[in-house]
Amino acid sequence: MTAREPKEPLSQRRLFQTTELDEARAIVADKFCDHRLDIATQADRFDACHHRAEGRATSLNYIRYGADVRIAPGELHSFYLVQIPLAGAAEIDNHGGDVLTHRGRGSVLNPHRETRMRWREGCTQLLLQIDAKTLQNEAETLLGTSLNAPVTFETAVDETRTATANWVRKLKTCFGLAEQNVVFGDSNPGTQMRVERELIGDFLASQPSNISNLIASAPGAQANIYLRRAVQFIHANLSLPLSVADIASAANTTPRNLQLQFQTEFGLTPMRYLRQERLALARRLILETQGSEALGDIADRAGFSHFGRFSIAYRQQFNEAPRDTKLRATQMQAAGLDQH
């Protein structure tokens, strides 16, 4: 009795399994980009498969070709591609000379550089596809400034680096969770967004690139990305009931660390900051609707479930009652004046 072969990752998410070269090329191209795919040694048996789990800005992929193949996609343009070998070897040239990859040493393809690859017979890889615009935005969030050039990573993803090894373990955990339909599915978009942000942010922090020095020298850069994520989450969800735990989870940090970051940056607790932004939203709504919308409806849109508490907090913040702001907006509208 032969030992059972190990189960392939994402086996329930199979896109195809084929011995036809053209079929494999067409289906892989549909998910990634147009490319050349050629068998390097005709004696090899071509037996390809592609498993894929779609996310919002990323996708998890498992690919094997069986045979020794040459792959020439040129520039990827719209996405980065991190490749982590599980077995076999591959030679990767992302416009910087060949890098030999194997178990423990992967690669990352920069979309703005031409790529040529040779996957040797028996090579199987996990691939993380990352939308280029999302990665650039995450990098700018991490640094707190705009970048005038694309992020360019070192080709080799070397697991002898502790931070890289930790990131690869996290990626493999995501594959396991995707197989259980915990992530990279339709069940929990909030969790999915947090997982993808963490994968991208941690890769930026761990993989050497043209912004590594900026990341290392940015004061509190890692703390800042948690804070920025929290603020973005708050502003995107002002009308929803939120707790400190909700905000911390969205920022991929702990409630205690979140409290410290808000106190340091704003001198406020996260919940006090949330209330302040809700009050500012309510005031804008009163003025923008020119007094035509009921105050109770505006309070609800701004995330206040109790109108009495809303009125008290509004007066404390703006030194006038909501009805006074509404009356002034109505009067200014009647006079044809700009109410802002």
What are the defining features of this structure?
340 residues; alpha+beta; 12 helices
Q: Tell me the overall shape.
A: elongated
Poorly predicted tracts of residues: none
Give me the number of helical elements: 12
On the 0 to 100 scale, the average pLDDT is 88
Roughly what fraction of the amino acids lie in strands?
15-25%
Category from helices, strands and their pairing = alpha+beta
**Secondary structure: number of strands:** 12
Q: State the order of secondary-structure elements, H for helix, E for strand.
A: EHEEEEEEEEEEHEHHHHHHHHHH
For the largest beta-sheet, the strand count, sense and barrel status come to: 7 strands, antiparallel
Description:
A 7-stranded antiparallel β-sheet has the order 1-3-4-11-6-9-12, sandwiched between helices. Strands 2-5-10-7-8 form a 5-stranded antiparallel β-sheet. The protein is elongated. The mean pLDDT is 88. Helix content is 44%, strand content 20%. A hairpin with a 4-residue loop joins β7 and β8. The chain has 340 residues and is of the alpha+beta class. It is built from 12 helices and 12 strands.
